[in-house]
Design brief:
alpha/beta; Ribose 5-phosphate Isomerase B, Chain: A; five-stranded parallel beta sheet; 5 strands; 48% helix; globular; binds D-ribose
């Protein structure tokens, strides 16, 4: 299960991602927003991040205007590793190296053609399970004071 969330700045691109997931028969849950009306990105980051951190969804996809505010918000939730990716190399590397569990886009930055290729890369790239990457992720999870 993939949990989706956006604010108004990411709403249109989220609709394109939804179309793509439907075409591929990938199960998803759209946690809002549900129109282009102005809203607050932390509300949707929180819902999707909790859904993923709680284990109800394997991955999340979050979209705001830049992808930055919604990334900052999602990464406040323990267990979330949200990665803002506007290219396939980053999407592959963040799965292999960071075991990222939330993919983030800026809806005002990237087009839908590239975005769905990045979604595909992210969803189909496994974590490397390399000792050095596990060690680094564990350090993130311990918290950085
Ligand atoms: C909303 O106008 C915009 O600030 C938001 O979508 C996002 O880009 C914040 O980081």
């Amino acid at each position: 299960m993939i949990a989706l969330g956006s604010d108004h700045g990411g709403y249109e691109l989220k609709q394109e991602v939804i179309k793509y997931l439907e075409e591929k028969n990938i199960a998803f849950k759209d946690m809002g927003c549900y129109s282009k009306e102005s809203c607050d990105y932390p509300d949707f980051a929180k819902q999707v991040a909790k859904e993923v951190a709680g284990g109800n969804s394997q991955y999340g996809i979050l979209i705001c205007g830049t992808g930055i505010g919604i990334s900052i918000s999602a990464n406040k939730v323990k267990g979330i590793r949200a990665a803002l990716c506007h290219d396939c190399f980053s999407a592959q590397a963040t799965r292999e190296h960071n075991n990222a569990n939330v993919l983030v886009f800026g809806g005002r930055i990237i087009g839908s053609g590239l975005a769905v290729k990045i979604v595909d890369t992210f969803l189909n790239t496994p974590f490397s399970n390399d000792e050095r990457h596990i060690r680094r992720i564990n350090k993130i999870e311990e918290g950085i004071e």
